[in-house]
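Q: For a teaching handout, I want to show students what a protein-ligand complex looks like in token form. Below are the inputs, and the small molecule is zinc ion. Please produce the holo structure.
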Amino acid sequence: MTPSVWLNSLCMSKILIEGVFKGQRVLHLQRPCDIHITENVSKALFDHYEPEYEKGGILAAYPEKRDGKTLLIIKEVIFLKNISDNPGNSYLPANHEISITLKKAFDEQFLPITFHTHPTAHENPMMEIIYYISGSDTSKQDQLVSYNAVKVCNQSILFPHSLILALGKSKNRMFIGFYGGLIAPVEFETQKNEQMQKAMNIIFGNISEWARKGNNKWWLIGGGLVFILLIIRYHKTALPLILLLAAMTPIFINDPCAKPKYFAQLTKGQVTIEIP
Ligand SMILES: [Zn+2]
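A: Here is the structure, written as tokens, with zinc ion included.
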């Protein structure tokens, strides 16, 4: 099958549909879309993540329709060399390497999802947590780059992009998110705030339910006072950090019942991320 015949078949099966971006006709994926990251790929991403440098490349996404839903199965990671002068802070692949990989994609019938990583290294593991949390969103530059269409067979196609980062040198947790491509927001903040709200409601719901029972509310008030006194007595300077970490806890809470939307956090193994 030639690339143009394959592209045609993707449009016929409504995996790709037509849209308009900045007055131009473009093709993009049809929502809802599930993106499945296989175990091999998740392992490769963990193994090759470098906490000191930005890395990037292409995720090879094999498309199909399942129960009327677009499904992309990511079976391979292709790393492209970072030629940026400042690899600790930016990712820039060489044009010829991109062209070769795009050609390979349409010859071998997979969709190219561009990804890059953000570094999280610091000598203090506490700072690595903060870098992990603050780095798990797109920069203005990332958002601009995500608006670049891929040109194949006289067609412009907008694919979502992916942001990946692991937690410091321990790499015991990984954030994988998909943004842009006219099917997802170009940032993760909105979705994170929604999750935070949900997590807070669950936490406060549990506490207030517990507090309603018998004398529990006095334990709660007493416990709170003791906690505050301890902080004031011993860790005055640590208070802002404690509050910051408390506010960020929802990012460490994985709701086991819900399928992750737009981004997921994993410790290992495969995952399916939904773009609703
Ligand atoms: Zn970035």
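A: Two things your students might notice: The domain at 3-186+256-275 is CATH 3.40.140.10 (Cytidine Deaminase; domain 2). The two ends are 31 Å apart (CA to CA).
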